[in-house]
């Protein structure tokens, strides 16, 4: 029996695969998929609008640099944007919101409960909304305001939704939206459904002449007689991270304490101003010319915020700026948030007649809680105010004390009450049921804090509101005649001060 030898020849169509090739192919596929995924994520993030700015374009009427991130932080920032935008609110595991008894008992209980009367300046709410008192606020009105808005705020069944259009300067948008969230926390179940367009730049833009036939409701931080813009409490009440200014009540407490370090007799008998004149402000540039202690009785100091930030804001603490008997308020690009801090010092505040006013400044009364200064003969007007105050120290001190008392009355409780009544009265005028646009996203405290940088987060958390145990103050009734008398009396007092200044000037020549 012969031996058969079997020899297996390799199959020509099945070449041997190297052992290292398969892992290489898998790795290459993985990295290709990862690169594609990262590219898609970056593209997805690039289309995501957030309250921190990110891809939002600068407002066309006020250009400023966009917020940018380095390549090193781009991917971590992308993850953060996705997490904050799409996961914070839908999966929020917070407990059920407690509802105070005065809310759950209904409006009848609210009417029967003793309410504090709101301050008189709340009457401006009626006047601000008067342009829509006959027509109501229609969907067409709101859409008309969209062309000028940086963002849209909707409150629906106690939840906040925001539709973002343009970026705001610094962190204004973030802190303003935080204020809305705290209002909902303070008065749960009470804030009505509403649809509001909001702009966060300084100057009002809805001119009464141009928009007379069809006024559009746009909320912002200030207004004046020739504009329809509706003033709303500004972002700095909850803090201003870029200038190291803390939430309002904490800042006011320190300023008031700082004002007591010197008695009135020991305060420097001159007028003091410290600020940034390089903000396209003719008044502030003119004010620089008054920096002469002997000639004009004024000390004017330039503030460089960039250098202050580098030095840790040691030279800009507001509580250390109450050493003069007189403090000057000068508008910036428009109105300035500095007014509340200047009045808080208890010095006699010299207000250079403003072109713009915020929600609370319209309640100030000349010679009662501030002294009016003419912008047309600025240095001489300041000198006359200082001379009058030094000749009548008890009267000047009383004006300063009443100015400080006025700001103390503007507690955060009153700020929230103003927000509540303004939103409530505006909501009553709406002729439609607000609906969430598909582009609007829910915003909750967790999602906003998620976007905040460390300094912003610290201030936001400090300014968290507590559930109110009392209802909002009672809004005064509409009284157009009273408002008109109030406005005319204010004008008359300012005219009397001007006349007195002219007499003093003529007597000294």
Describe the protein's architecture and organization.
The protein is α/β, with parallel strands linked by helices and 509 residues long. It folds into two domains: 105-232 and 412-478, no CATH class; 247-410 and 487-508, Rossmann fold. The protein has 18 helices and 15 strands. The chain has a five-stranded parallel beta sheet, with helices on both faces. A four-stranded antiparallel beta sheet has the order 7-4-5-15, sandwiched between helices. The protein has a two-stranded antiparallel ribbon with strand order 1-2. The radius of gyration is 30 Å and the shape is globular. The model is unreliable at 1-14 and 30-38 (pLDDT under 50).
Question: How would you concisely characterize the structure shown here?
Answer:
With 509 residues, the protein is of the alpha/beta class. The protein has helices at residues 21-46, 71-86, 101-104, 107-112, 124-129, 139-146, 172-186, 248-259, 282-287, 293-296, 305-310, 338-344, 378-391, 393-409, 412-429, 445-451, 454-462, 480-508; strands at 49-50, 53-54, 57-58, 151-156, 159-164, 166-167, 194-198, 219-220, 230-231, 268-275, 298-302, 324-329, 348-352, 371-373, 441-443.
Radius of gyration: 30 Å
- β-strand percent reads 5-15%
User: Helix/strand/pairing class, anyone?
Assistant: alpha/beta
Largest sheet, in brief, is: 5 strands, parallel
* Oligomeric state as shown: single chain
Q: What share of the residues lie within helices? A: 40-55%
User: Can you tell me the number of structural domains?
Assistant: 2
**Shape by Cα distribution:** globular
Overall mean pLDDT score?
87
Find the count of extended strands (DSSP E, 2+ residues): 15
User: What topology, given as strand order, has the largest sheet?
Assistant: 11-10-12-13-14
Distance between the termini: 147 Å
Low-pLDDT runs: 1-14, 30-38
Count of DSSP-assigned helices: 18
């Amino acid at each position: 029996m012969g031996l058969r030898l079997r020899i297996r020849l390799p199959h020509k169509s099945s070449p041997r695969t190297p052992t290292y090739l398969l892992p290489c192919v898998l790795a290459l596929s993985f990295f290709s998929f990862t690169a594609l995924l990262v590219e898609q994520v970056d593209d997805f993030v690039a289309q995501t609008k957030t309250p921190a700015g990110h891809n939002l374009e600068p407002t066309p009427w006020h250009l400023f640099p966009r917020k940018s991130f380095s390549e090193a932080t781009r991917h971590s920032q992308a993850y953060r944007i996705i997490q904050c935008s799409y996961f914070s609110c839908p999966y929020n595991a917070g407990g059920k919101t407690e509802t105070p008894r005065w809310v759950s008992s209904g409006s009848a209980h609210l009417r029967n409960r003793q309410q504090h009367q709101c301050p008189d300046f709340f009457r401006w709410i009626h006047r601000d909304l008067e342009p829509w008192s006959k027509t109501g606020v229609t969907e067409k009105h709101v859409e008309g305001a969209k062309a000028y808005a940086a963002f849209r705020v909707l409150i629906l069944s106690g939840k906040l939704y925001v539709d973002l259009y343009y970026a705001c300067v610094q962190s204004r948008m973030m802190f303003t939206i935080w204020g809305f969230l705290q209002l909902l926390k303070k008065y749960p179940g009470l804030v009505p459904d509403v649809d509001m367009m909001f702009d966060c730049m300084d100057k009002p833009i809805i001119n009464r002449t141009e928009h007379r036939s069809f006024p559009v409701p746009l909320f912002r931080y200030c207004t004046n007689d020739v504009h329809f813009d509706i003033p709303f409490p500004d972002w700095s009440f909850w803090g201003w991270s870029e200038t190291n200014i803390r939430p309002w009540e904490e800042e006011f407490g320190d300023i008031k304490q700082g004002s007591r370090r010197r008695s009135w007799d020991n305060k420097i008998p001159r007028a003091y101003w410290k600020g940034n004149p390089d903000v396209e402000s003719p008044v502030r540039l003119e004010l620089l010319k008054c920096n002469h202690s002997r000639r004009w009785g004024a000390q004017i100091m330039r503030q460089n915020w960039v250098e202050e930030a580098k030095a840790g804001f040691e030279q800009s603490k507001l509580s250390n700026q109450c050493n003069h008997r007189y403090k000057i308020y000068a508008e910036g690009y428009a109105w300035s948030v500095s007014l509340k801090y200047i009045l808080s010092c208890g010095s006699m505040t010299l207000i250079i007649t403003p072109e713009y006013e915020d929600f609370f400044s319209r309640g100030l009364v000349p010679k009662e809680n501030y002294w009016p200064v003419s912008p047309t003969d600025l240095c001489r007007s300041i000198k006359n105010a200082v001379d009058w105050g030094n000749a009548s120290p008890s009267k000047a001190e009383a004006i300063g004390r009443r100015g400080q008392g006025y700001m103390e009355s503007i507690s955060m409780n009153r700020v929230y009450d103003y927000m509540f009544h303004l939103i409530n009265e505006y909501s009553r005028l709406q002729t439609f049921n607000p609906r969430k646009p598909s582009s609007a996203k829910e915003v909750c405290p967790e999602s906003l804090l998620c976007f905040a940088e460390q300094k912003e987060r610290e201030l936001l958390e400090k300014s968290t509101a507590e559930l109110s145990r009392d209802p909002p103050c009672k809004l005064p009734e509409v009284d157009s005649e009273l408002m008109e008398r109030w406005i005319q009396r204010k004008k008359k007092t300012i005219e009397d001060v001007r006349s007195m200044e002219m007499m003093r000037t003529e007597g000294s020549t």
